[in-house]
Amino acid sequence: MPETISASAMRDRLLSRLKTPPIGDEWLRVLGVPGHRDLLGLIARHNPPSIGALAELAARAQPNVSRALNALVAAGLIEIVSSGRRSIPQITETGAAKALELGLLEAQADVAALESSATDLFAVEATGSVCNAEPSGDTIDGRLTTWFWLISSKEKVAARTECDLNALGLRLLENWWRLLHRRDAPFRLWEFTLEEPSGASYFLAATVLGAKVNLHAHTASGRMLDLEHASRVYAVATFEQHLLDEVLRPLAAHHWLKGRSARRMHALLRRVEDSRGQPAERDFCRTAGALGLAPYDLSDDCAAQIRDLLDLIPDEDVRLDFSSAVLADRLEAGRLWTRHELERFGHRNAMPALMQLRDACTKTHKAPAQPYRHGYALARSAREFLGLAADQPVDGIEGLSKLLGARESIGLSPDAPGALRAFQSFDGDAPTFIVENEGPLSSVFTLARGVGDFVAFGNRVSCVADLYTDRQAVGRAFAAEFMAPRNAVVQMIEEEDQPVSQIADHFGVSVPVVNHQYQNAFN
Which of 12, 171, 274, 291 is the most buried (most CB within 10 A)? Predict the structure, then answer.
């Protein structure tokens, strides 16, 4: 009958081996130091978000902990991942295996908790037993908690999602670049239930608007959850880090701690992290994501088109707006439209006075936090510089062209692909525009949006699109205030009792623009 060895006896045998490590087994020598074993166990059990947090868990001075971590890194048991100003100690596959062998996870043998000690937005917890788990399976039965501030509550509330966390993590990784970089396109993240008497279920979605991402939650019937601004708006980089640090990396570590190595999640996560660390590849992946594509395993033709787009539009903010407007199936059409129409109208549509206008408007002007305020302020400066009276109309495409130095009224182009409406480049030293022909009112408003974009940002290449991103909001606000100043609109409605349709005809804009200007005057 084979000898039965208890877990504690096996651990004692392993520890006795550590006292006389064979040459070449660096991990044996390193883990022969009790303090090193303690740190490995803390990292495996608590997934600390920084070296400082680990030092607090260990009740040791941070310099002392850092020296010990260097030894663990050299032995391949952990790795140090940089995240902004933080350095995060993360267990490796080898480290997880050794932690299991040495019994460093006994404190959580029945319930594998993956929660970070300093989670701000998410926490994941596997509810299945480690001992009874199927090593060959990838399922992680568990709970994802999302913490929200609600307008109606003075405390954070917990939103619970019960699901296969592995499947959720794979879905995030497979759509990573589209989720974070396709603009004005809500991405449904997951369903959750609030800890409240009603127990209502909500869907959480994320919409990228530029450098910011907006979270919004609604029921199946469309009822919205009233989130405080702090729980609703995040910098894209911050939200990305939350997902990595508090959801995906802990899930990958959980597989390792169960003895599951080289899983699909590990491969996808490593590929994403490798791409994030290489500037050229990162730009390629972000552009592919904005086009609605997964950046890996693309056809040669598709990859070549993306590389051409990177050359055509060097500025990332512009490129991601352009890509989100045309998407993958219209990318080639978008490139052909811009090239053909610039060859056709580029010289005629050049506006040399725009450079001087931008210099005058931005010399002392600082961009406010809200995009629409930025656009309004620049439009008022532009009208003042151009000598336009408060109620003076621009006089359509021809009038705006002349104001900005064009030799004649600009030529208009046929329908642009997708949500693209106009494109700005340079003809020599002068900005030039190609504008889709949508009729007199819409076309001049689109041109004014392009003018506002150049005054605000000054890029050699930019676009106007039917997207509701932060950048497009600046152009829309500029165009509305430049074409129909809101103070003049208020006076004409309230003091002169003019009908809205008459005011719209006077300024050469649509009725909705006048209504929008009047309503915004009181917000």
Answer: 291
